[in-house]
Each structure stands twice: as structure tokens, then as C-alpha cells.
Amino acid sequence: MEKKAYIPSPLDLSRVTLPESLGELTEKIAENIHEVWAKSRMDEGWTYGEKRDDGKKTHPCLIPYDMLPESEKEYDRNTALSALRLVVALGYDIRKK
Fold it and tell me: Mind listing the pLDDT tens digit for each residue in 44-70?
């Protein structure tokens, strides 16, 4: 069987703007993204270490979200923002009850 090259084609969300009122939601989603990632790693036997070491299964980001360096928080925020933009682009409303 011939394999075809996979070419990712995400939706262009660059023109989707989110209201500032979603700032708190974005941060909560970003924090949860980190928590899910950290739990998954820990479930696989990873622990905190000052340097990432795949052999020893140590990672410096296995700490609470509020202790992460800003660069790592920004990665999680961008993931959250992308998800929120996709929800809006697909025609859904996001509002707090």
C-alpha cells in the first residue's frame, strides 16, 4: 500500500477576534491544558527535574501552572486561544452563565 504524505491544513483563524471578556476563560483553559499534560506525564512515570531528561523521565515543567515561566504559560495560552477561536469560527457563542 502506497503511503501518501500528510499535509496538515488547519483552519485559518487569524481573522477571528475574541472579546477581552474571554481573558479569564483563556487563562483557566491554559491552566487546565497544563494540568492535563502534567498528569499524563506523571501517569507515565515522569517526575520533576531541573532539566528535561527523556531517559530519566524528568521535566522542569512538572510544577504548578502559576510557577511556570511566562514562556511556558504563553504556549498553553496560545493553545487555549486557538481552541476558543475555532469555537467562534465554527459559529458557536461563548458566554458565561
Answer: 999 999 999 999 999 999 999 999 999
Sign of the Cα torsion 64, 68, 74, 75 reads negative
Q: What is the pTM of this model?
A: 0.87
For every residue of the chain, which 3-state class applies, written as one string?
A: CCCCCCCCCCCCCCCCCCCHHHHHHHHHHHHHHHHHHHHHHHHCCCEECCCCECCCCEECCCCCHHHCCHHHHHHHHHHHHHHHHHHHHCCCCCCCC
Residue 4 C-beta-side C-alpha neighbours within 13 Å: 3
Q: Cα dist. 67→14, 45, 60, 61 in Å?
A: 30, 21, 11, 9
